[in-house]
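[job 0417] fold request received: 3-methyladenine DNA glycosylase
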Amino acid sequence: MAGRFAPRTARAALPPRTGAPVRRTPAPRAAPAPPEAPPVTREWTPPGPLDLRVVLGPLRRGPADPTFRMVADGTFWRASRTPEGPGTLRVAARGGRIAATAWGPGATWLLDGLPALLGADDDPDAFAPRHRLLALTRHRHPGLRLLRTGLVMESLIPSVLEQKVTTDEAYRAWRHLVRRFGTPAPGPTAELGLHVMPDARGWAMIPSWEWHKANVDAKRSSTILRAVRVARRLEEAAAMDLPEAAARLELIPGIGPWTSAETLQRSNGAADAVTVGDLHLPGIVGHALAGNRDADDAEMLALLTPYEGQRHRATRLILLSGRTPPRRAPRMTPGDIVHL
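[job 0417] inference complete; emitting structure tokens
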């Protein structure tokens, strides 16, 4: 009997008879991607002359910065990670007014901060030039205002990458890490190649070999990893006065006065955040104000004493003047962390 009847399970596995309909369960369809929210716009009239190139220039980390672009028509693009999420901001000057468009979850936050970004909180009249060079430069650049992004980590991390290396090395590292671990910026940015930098968790998850590929040594990568663990606390510094903000940042091992000043100049619009510990700045200031290209930090600070409260603005004006000493020594040689 067992040979005459196939088991029920085997019969179910037999192919259907010829001509019998075959029922196939349709494959589940992937959920469509949610449509991107439409852009939001804003127009703003600055309180005085405004040079977008000069004001926004400090945000650019090299000519191929994946978070910043200036296109031929004078329009500026910036990709940021805001408290509300990723956002892209496009800014252009239009007949004395500023026209801005923003995309992404952070769009409204970026437009709300547009005046501060372009120096509305800055007070250029607080600066009283005591040197003819600075008076002439201010006259030639009436559109200089000190920007304020309100975002600490987006300036802190590239500043850490710039510690003790050439700017070209730091720019390459920033490009590699943002493109590799960031996200494409919202809006019509594909042709521009804009990316938003990783969030704190994204930075923390970067494996050691990727830091190596970016030529970032263990000291700088460890500093960044320590910082992102307390990113929320560091972001609070954007609302603090300069001494308290600098103290908050410098609690992190590996962040000293140079890095905190470079960060707070951008995040807080800190007019007095003078950069000490820089390889070139003391000689530039010394050459411009006293004809001494061999000035050190102490002499630089002494020369800037008349500008207490506005020392960062004074150094911006010196750099804009073009009065820099000719190089007489080779530039710093790019390093290779394999040999460090």
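[job 0417] notes: Residues 43 and 99 are 5 Å apart (CA to CA). The radius of gyration is 27 Å.
[job 0417] exit 0
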